[in-house]
Amino acid sequence: MSAIARVDDLVLPEAPGPVTVAAQAVFADLCTRSLDP
Amino acid sequence: MLESATHDSTGACWVDGLLQSPGTASGISPLDHAIVVGDGVFETMKVVDGTAFALTRHLRRLRFSAEGMGMLPADDDRVRDAVAAVLDADPAAGKLRITWSSGVGPLGSSRGDGPGTLIVATEPGSTWPADEAVHLCRWTRNEHGALVGLKTTSYAENVIALEAAHAHGCSEALFANTAGDLCEGTGTNVFLVVDDELVTPPLSSGCLAGVTRELLLEEMAVTERQVDPDEFARPPRRSSPRPRET
Predict the structure, then answer these.
(1) B130 interaction partners in chain A (CB closer than 8 Å)
(2) Residue B241 has pLDDT above 80, yes or no
(3) Would you tell me which residues 1-37 of chain A have a C-beta closer than 8 angstroms to some C-beta of chain B?
(4) ipTM entry
(5) Second label for B35, Cα 20 to 30 Å away, from B41, B95, B195, B232?
(6) How many A×B Cβ pairs under 8 Å?
(7) Which residues of chain A lie closer than 8 angstroms to B243, CB-CB?
(8) pTM of the model
(9) 3-state SS of chain B?
């Protein structure tokens, strides 16, 4: 899972923000719990 | 994420029961309908320590896509056996692809009646950057099209869009649909964080039901709703996660 830091010329300076980081952590945790979730 | 620039030809390949070296695989007919017109379905998944991630979900979607295409689905046990054989031959694999075509057919859109062709191949895994730039491309997804929701080998639109993204210095292209709503990327689903709420386009937008998307919806509070591409520019700007594998 990657954060979007720029959309064409529009820079998203907060990337990755806390919600994105949380989503990445949730998915990483899921992958450690099962390889066939 | 410029895969073409870092492509490594190592890996293993299985074609209809025969393990072969990638790049030299024989046994695929030039009349295979996946080659002739893109009449096939596929799945790609990461491989972790010799195990194909979320294989059961990917097999479920492979079957869904085949049935949506009006093809006989591949036999799940046969696919699992092929996956096991390929991963045994390539224990360092990082990525695996399953392709199921309608088999040999005529040199046109009419489908043949032969058995399907099953191909399972591996390659090294990819290392993705922590964040990326995306390009909102000028082409649209047709949310009313015959292939909506199906992961088919008809991927030329994605190739063109991704080339355009690269030309704009971006690593992925995002599509809106014919209604102007955000849909998906060439190989990704897209999520936005809007006012601290995680939102993603609904399947009715025409996007693929990505496996990572599906898992996130099960694990987190995510709102499925129509997304205006202009929401990227609405303050407060928040970063947005983008599941890599769909």
Answers:
(1) 2-3, 16
(2) no
(3) 1-8, 10, 12-17, 19-20, 22-24, 26-27, 30-31, 35-37
(4) 0.95
(5) B95
(6) 121
(7) 1, 27
(8) 0.91
(9) CCHHHCCCCCCCEEECCEEECCCCCCCCCCCEHHHHHCCEEEEEEEEECCEECCHHHHHHHHHHHHHHCCCCCCCHHHHHHHHHHHHHHCCCCCEEEEEEECCECCCCCCCCCCCCEEEEEEECCCCCCCEEEEEEEEEEECCCCCCCCCCECCCHHHHHHHHHHHHCCCCEEEEEECCCCEEEECCCCCCEEECCEEEECCHHHCCCCCHHHHHHHHHCCCEECCCCHHHHHCCCCCCEEECCCC
User: Nearest residue of B to residue A17 by CA position?
Assistant: B239
Chain B window 144-203: which residues touch A at a Cβ cutoff of 8 Å? Answer: 168, 170, 174, 190-191, 193, 196-198
Q: How far apart (Å, rounded) are the C-alpha atoms in residues B199 and B197? A: 6
Give the single-character DSSP code of A23.
H
Please say if the pLDDT value at position B9 is more than 70: no
Please report, as a single letter, which amino acid is at residue B198: L
Question: Which residues in chain A touch residue B242, judged by CB atoms under 8 angstroms apart?
Answer: 1-4
- CA B86 to chain CA centroid, Å, is 20
Interface touch A12/B237, C-beta < 8 Å: yes
Identify which of B98, B11, B102 has the alpha carbon closest to the alpha carbon of residue B59: B98
Q: Give the contacts of B88 (CB within 8 A, at least 6 positions apart).
A: none
Domains of chain B with CATH codes: 3-123 (3.30.470.10), 134-233 (3.20.10.10)
Tokens of A3: 């954060």
